[in-house]
Design a protein that fits this description.
four-stranded antiparallel β-sheet; single chain; disordered N terminus; alpha+beta
Length: about 450
């Protein structure tokens, strides 16, 4: 059933507190950060509360088809004062108090109420729609936390690469200065190296600021202070490419996507709303059972004898609408137009989901190929750097050749690291687009992290 897919996986309070106050030196895995975010993210908590509210609202529709029982009671005390206007009438004056108490229990069982049954079926659709909304919020949280997690790792790698490049450029600058001092190179090599060193320093400042911002974003996403993500244990190990064709993923998305399911359920609700409006022309039939009793304490206006009266009754109540000032007719027209709108929204949701699934699929496939290309480029640029260093040492190449090779190598390293992380997030986005993403999908990524 749909509801089995949205069972709440709340994090125990003790675990949440422990994660919130984790030491800066203790790195957390992706699963740990996601579990912390479930108890902190306001959007996700709001979706959970909305689901619970819609569950209660759906159950309210039972009142239209189940028996309704009502109890009523009243009590009164009356002063009776009889004074004949005509003295010749032989009726004595009377002054007395008498009391009347009554109680009734009435049971009403709807027999034929088409609007109530349509509302009941609507309640079930609304509940399923709320479940789909909750599932979409869960998937969105999974992707947002994962993106923030790997954004930090990408920024850390970028900063480390820039710092390594700065060190290498610094060594090249020192070498150029020594060669200039001994007269084996020109001042141009020194100036080229100095310019590249200054540029790398500026890049280091930008990388440090970017890392600071990405860490703040991760803290905000998971509700931690100074969250520290674990790094990949083996950079050469990634997920396998999709084993199914793109059309298979699109077919999955048309059934499993929360967005498509919400649109489909919205169309069902709109269709049932038309049924409710049309039911305004139809009669209703109810069965009623009542048991009432009246006690006259001290008599009544016609006599002073106390009594009890019991009135059990049964009735069939038929209500036939005849004319409602054209309100029902125009209500039917309104709901029919809204049904057409819901049908168009459903088609639009299917098309957008199919497009998003294809985009995520080809993005993942391209990302995996890009990783392999960057790995080959890393090896090539490393060989080119080694050759340029050798050529520079024997006087064949100039300093700018070495600096350019260094810059290309470290840029390739940064691009490779980012491509690896993008592949991991891209896999989650593909499953999100297809509607099959669950928290268990984080385990395969978690297994790639350092222990």
């Amino acid at each position: 059933m749909l509801l089995s897919r949205v069972l709440f996986r709340t994090l125990p309070l003790t675990a949440a507190v422990a994660l919130a106050f984790a030491s800066n030196a203790q790195a957390q895995s992706l699963v740990e950060m996601y579990e912390a975010a479930r108890g902190y993210d306001a959007g996700f908590i709001s979706a959970k509360a909305q689901f619970e509210a819609n569950l209660a609202k759906a159950n309210q529709t039972l009142g239209g088809i189940l028996p309704n029982i009502a109890l009523s009671a009243s009590a009164s005390r009356t002063y009776f004062d009889l004074r004949p206007d005509n003295p010749t009438v032989q009726v004595p004056a009377q002054q007395r108090f008498y009391g009347t108490g009554s109680a009734a229990v009435t049971l009403t069982q709807p027999i034929y109420r088409p609007a109530a049954w349509a509302a009941y079926r609507q309640g079930g659709r609304l509940l399923e729609q709320a479940a789909a909304q909750y599932e979409a919020a869960e998937q969105d949280l999974l992707v947002r936390v994962s993106q923030a997690y790997f954004d930090v790792l990408t920024s850390e790698d970028s900063l480390a690469s820039v710092q390594a490049q700065k060190t290498a450029v610094g060594e090249q600058l020192a070498s150029a200065k020594r060669n200039f001092e001994v007269g084996t190179s020109t001042i141009t090599g020194v100036r080229d190296a100095q310019a590249r060193f200054d540029l790398t320093t500026a890049q280091e400042i930008a990388a440090e600021n970017d890392l600071r911002i990405k860490r703040l974003a991760l803290d905000l996403a998971v509700g931690m202070s100074n969250a520290k993500p674990k790094r990949l244990a083996d950079n050469s190990k990634l997920i396998a490419p999709p084993s199914e064709a793109v059309d298979s993923w699109v077919s999955k998305s048309e059934v499993a996507s929360p967005a498509v399911r919400q649109a489909q359920l919205a169309l069902d609700v709109a269709t049932l709303e038309v049924d409710k409006a049309v039911a305004g022309h139809k009669p209703t039939l109810d069965a009623q059972l009542a048991y009432s009793g009246v006690r006259n304490d001290g008599g009544n206006a016609t006599g002073a004898v106390s009594s009890h009266i019991y009135n059990p009754s049964a009735a069939i109540v038929l209500n036939v609408p005849i004319f409602a000032g054209f309100a029902t007719q125009y209500r039917v027209k309104e709901t029919v137009s809204l049904e057409d709108k819901a049908r168009s929204d459903f088609e639009n949701a299917k098309r957008n989901t199919a497009q998003a699934t294809r985009t995520a699929y080809f993005g993942l496939v391209a990302g995996l190929s890009q990783v392999k290309a960057y790995e080959a480029a890393e090896a090539s640029t490393q060989s080119a750097l080694d050759a340029n260093k050798l050529g520079y040492s024997v006087g064949v190449n100039i300093n700018i050749d070495v600096l350019n090779s260094q810059s290309q190598l470290y840029q390739t390293k940064r691009d490779l690291a980012k491509a690896r992380y993008d592949v991991l997030v891209g896999n989650l986005k593909l499953r999100q687009a297809a509607g099959t993403l669950t928290p268990e999908d984080l385990q395969s990524i978690n297994s790639l992290l350092a222990p």
